[in-house]
Amino acid sequence: MDYMEYLYDHLDLLMYLRYHPRWYKILYYDPSLFNDFINEAKEMLKIRGIDKLEKIKNNFNLLYSLAGIINK
């Protein structure tokens, strides 16, 4: 797997790497931890599938609340 190509295809992960330089050292010495880096970055950036569902749920609740206020 070409890690740099993957990072340049996913710029949000590349920016996470740039703002958290400890991962440069970790990945340099042990590239097998790339999946750990991806998992941590996705969790911190809130771009996992569960985070997207949570965002949709929050938006729906906001619309439902606004509809309740307008109908009063």
What is the H-and-E element order?
HHHHH
The dominant shape is rod-shaped
Count the domains.
1
Distance between the termini: 57 Å
Kindly provide the radius of gyration, computed on alpha-carbon positions and rounded to a whole number of angstroms.
18 Å
> Structural class, please?
mainly alpha
Percentage of residues in strands:
under 5%
The main sheet comes to: none
Give the beta-strand count: 0
- The average pLDDT value, as a whole number, equals 93
Helix content: over 70%
Q: Number of helical segments?
A: 5
Unreliable sequence segments:
none
Question: Can you put this structure into words, describing what you see?
Answer:
It contains five helices and no strands. It is mainly α and 72 residues long. It has one domain (3-70). Helix 2 (11-19) crosses helix 4. The longest helix is centred in the C-terminal third of the chain and has 22 residues, at 49-70. The radius of gyration is 18 Å and the shape is rod-shaped. The model has no long low-confidence stretch (mean pLDDT 93).
Feature tags:
72 residues, mainly alpha
Itemize the secondary structure elements and their pairings.
Blueprint (H helix, E strand, L loop, with lengths): L2 H7 L1 H9 L2 H8 L4 H12 L3 H22 L2
Helix pairs in contact: 2-4
Structure described in brief:
This protein has 72 residues and is mainly α. The chain has one domain (3-70).
